[in-house]
Design a protein that fits this description.
CATH architecture of the largest domain: 3-Layer(aba) Sandwich
Number of domains: 2
CATH topology of the largest domain: Rossmann fold
Structural class: alpha/beta
Shape: globular
Helix content: 25-40%
C-alpha cells in the first residue's frame, strides 16, 4: 500500500479533482527489462573480449540511457573508462544486440495492466515518458501489449532531453492539455523524482524497479506505492506529506 517516507516534504497539494493524467517511466516501472538489457550488455562484452557482469549489477546502470549503461558496463568489466572511439563502437554493438531481443525475457510487472485499466475506467489520460530511445521503446511497448493502453510515448532520443531534465514531462503536459500540477509522474528512481520536481508535477515511485539501493523515501516523493493498482485509489488518499507519522 502507499506509504509515507520517513522524511516527507510539506505543502504537497492533495490529488482530488487535480490530477487529470498519469505519465509512466518504462524500465523498472512498467516493464522489468533488466534480463534482456543484461543479455545484450553481456553479449556486447563477450564480443569485445571482456568478462560478463551479473545481471543485478547491470540493473544498477539502467535509467540514464544506452550510453551510460554501456559506459558503466565497460568500466565494471575492464576496470577502466573506455575512450570515445571504443565506447561508440560498443554502444553500436549493444544497440544491435538489444534490438534483436527486446522482450525475450523481460516481463510486465504485476499490477501494471490492472492499474492502467482502472485509470482508463476513471477517464484518466495515460502516457509513457522514458530515457529509453524510441527505436527500443516503441517496439517494446508493442511487444508487451502496452502501446494500446497508452496515448503516446515520449523518448529521450537527444541527450539534452533526458530526465532529470523536465522537457519531456512538460511536452507531455502540452500534448495532453493539462497543467504540470495536473499530471502525476510515476517512476522508480531518483532521476524520475528530480524530473517531476523540475517540471512541477506530483510524483509517485514504485518500491520495486531499479532505484540502485538508495532510499526512495529520502528523495521525498509524494507517494511510494507497491503496485500501479494503488494509483486508482490515490484520489481518496492524502499525499504522504500530509499523513501522520
Amino acid at each position: 500500500m502507499s506509504r509515507r517516507p520517513d522524511d516527507a516534504r510539506s505543502g504537497v497539494p492533495a490529488l482530488p479533482t487535480r490530477v487529470r493524467a498519469v505519465a509512466f517511466d518504462l524500465d523498472g516501472t512498467l516493464v522489468d527489462s533488466a534480463p534482456d538489457l543484461a543479455a545484450a550488455a553481456n553479449a556486447m562484452l563477450e564480443t569485445l573480449g571482456h568478462a560478463r557482469l551479473p545481471e543485478p549489477h547491470i540493473a544498477t546502470l539502467i535509467g540514464g540511457g544506452v550510453e551510460r549503461l554501456v559506459e558503466g558496463a565497460l568500466a565494471a568489466s575492464t576496470g577502466r573508462a573506455a575512450d570515445a572511439k571504443p565506447l561508440a563502437a560498443a554502444v553500436a554493438l549493444f544497440r544491435r544486440r538489444y534490438a534483436e531481443r527486446l522482450f525475450d525475457r523481460s516481463r510486465i510487472y504485476p499490477g501494471v495492466i490492472e492499474g492502467l485499466e482502472a485509470l482508463d475506467a476513471q477517464g484518466v489520460a495515460r502516457c509513457c515518458i522514458t530515457n529509453k530511445a524510441s527505436a527500443f521503446t516503441l517496439p517494446l511497448l508493442d511487444a508487451a501489449g502496452l502501446a494500446r493502453r497508452l496515448a503516446f510515448a515520449l523518448c529521450a532520443d537527444r541527450r539534452e532531453e533526458r530526465k532529470p531534465a523536465p522537457d519531456m514531462l512538460l511536452a507531455a503536459c502540452l500534448r495532453l492539455e493539462v497543467a504540470p500540477a495536473e499530471m502525476l509522474y510515476v517512476g522508480d528512481s531518483r532521476i524520475d523524482i528530480e524530473a517531476a520536481r523540475a517540471a512541477g508535477c506530483p510524483v509517485a515511485v514504485v518500491d520495486y524497479g531499479y532505484h540502485q539501493g538508495y532510499s526512495l523515501a529520502a528523495e521525498r516523493p509524494d507517494w511510494i506505492i507497491g503496485s500501479l493498482v494503488e494509483l486508482s485509489a490515490l484520489p481518496a488518499m492524502p499525499p504522504i506529506a500530509n499523513l501522520q507519522a
